[in-house]
Write a structure and sequence with these properties.
The protein has eleven helices and eight strands. Helix 4 packs across helix 5, helix 6 packs parallel to helix 8 and helix 8 packs parallel to helix 9. It is α/β, with parallel strands linked by helices. Helix content is 55%, strand content 17%. Bound molecules: erythose-4-phosphate. Erythose-4-phosphate binds next to helix 7.
């Protein structure tokens, strides 16, 4: 399973890259706003800065919600760097835009997926990735992980190339469940990735090894 980090924070992206486990980055307008990035030129510059850090796909979201606007913005984003994946919302004009970009050989990530039907539609339109938001489903008492399972079954039934990018990941258990099911990618915060490192027995074991070494190596 590929690990993407879900942030526009350059320091966190660099930290994940340095850890040696990073396969890509996802951003969205809220994450860009959180970093105080505004204005078209600054936004484009920031995407370029992200691409300079990471070896892998970088999802950059369009703001337009009409077909022509999405095509215009998406083409501009795709020209920035070959790592850019154009992120398109799951709306009617978005589905048409997915088909357009697919035929032009430009990678896409269909975002705001909350049902298997939406994922199927995006895959049929040629999306490179679909992003089901598991955390936001859990928040409203739906089972986000079950949605990943359902999409995995459908995509496997028909051999779709579209990758399942489990998004809105909140904690390490989400990551493990996605890996068990066979999600192709997960995107989450740095905290969820580094939480995989932790186990109290690892800390205790290391403390004991170092103490025993110190006793005999004074
Ligand atoms: C997906 O690409 C989104 O950026 C993201 O995963 C949303 O996560 P959130 O629900 O934590 O905002």
């Amino acid at each position: 399973m590929k690990f993407f980090i879900d942030t526009a924070n350059l320091k966190e992206i660099q930290e994940a890259q340095d850890l040696g486990v990073l396969d890509g980055v996802t951003t969205n307008p809220s994450l860009m706003a959180k970093e105080g990035i505004s204005g078209k030129n600054n936004i484009l510059k920031h995407y370029k800065a992200i691409c300079a850090i990471v070896d892998g796909d970088v999802s950059a979201e369009v703001i337009a919600t009409d077909y022509e606007g999405m095509i215009r913005e998406g083409e501009e984003l795709a020209e920035l760097d070959e790592k850019i994946v154009v992120k398109i919302p799951m709306i009617k004009d978005g589905v048409k835009a997915l088909r357009y970009f697919s035929e032009k050989g430009i990678k896409t990530n269909c975002t705001l997926i909350f049902s298997a039907g939406q994922a199927l539609l995006a895959a049929k339109a040629g999306a490179s990735y679909v992003s089901p938001f598991i955390g936001r489903l859990d928040d409203i008492s739906y089972d986000g992980i079950q949605l990943i399972e359902q999409i995995r079954t459908i995509f496997d039934n028909y051999g779709f190339d579209t990758e399942i990018l489990a998004a809105s990941v909140r904690h390490p258990i989400h990551i493990l469940k996605c890996a068990e099911i066979g999600a192709d990618v997960m995107t989450g915060p740095l905290s969820a990735i580094t939480a995989l490192l932790k186990h109290p027995l690892t800390d205790l074991g290391l403390e004991k090894f170092l103490a025993d070494y110190a006793k005999t190596n004074k």
